[in-house]
Every structure is written in C-alpha cells, then in structure tokens.
Amino acid sequence: MRIRPLDTSPEADRIQVEIFRKMKPEERLKRSFELSAAMKRLNATGVRMRHPEYSDEEVRLAVIRMRLGDELFLKVYPHASHIQP
Q: 56-68 and 25-50 helices cross at what angle (nearest 10)?
C-alpha cells in the first residue's frame, strides 16, 4: 500500500504515479539517483547552517552520520566522534 504525501492532492498524486509508471526503468533509476543526490545536498546545507564552523570534510562526515546512524558511524569513523549532524 502506497501512502500519499500530506502536501499532495489525490489528483496530483494520481498523475504523478501515472507519469512514473510510463517511464522506462532506466529513467526511473536515473530519477532516483537525482533525488538521492538532491537529498544529500539538502542534508549538507542543513549541516552547514547548524555548524558553520565545519570544514567540507566535516560536513561530509556529518551527512554520512545522518545516513548511517550513530552506532554504525562510530564503528566506521571512530576518529570522528565529535562530528554531529
């Protein structure tokens, strides 16, 4: 069961689903990569707003921490325990 986003009307949601269904698989895959990249940029922007003192590398690590969660992040990047999203 698919859940419609709260900020989308039923008609707009129906049209969007139709558009996605008509796309070739490679186009849907391309769109998913584009959305993923956009989310990473948005996350990085949020980190930069919260931590203007962070270097580009620290921003990158903060975004990774958001994606991995604290437990896995600290196992993979124990030297970066000071980095907060």
A: 120
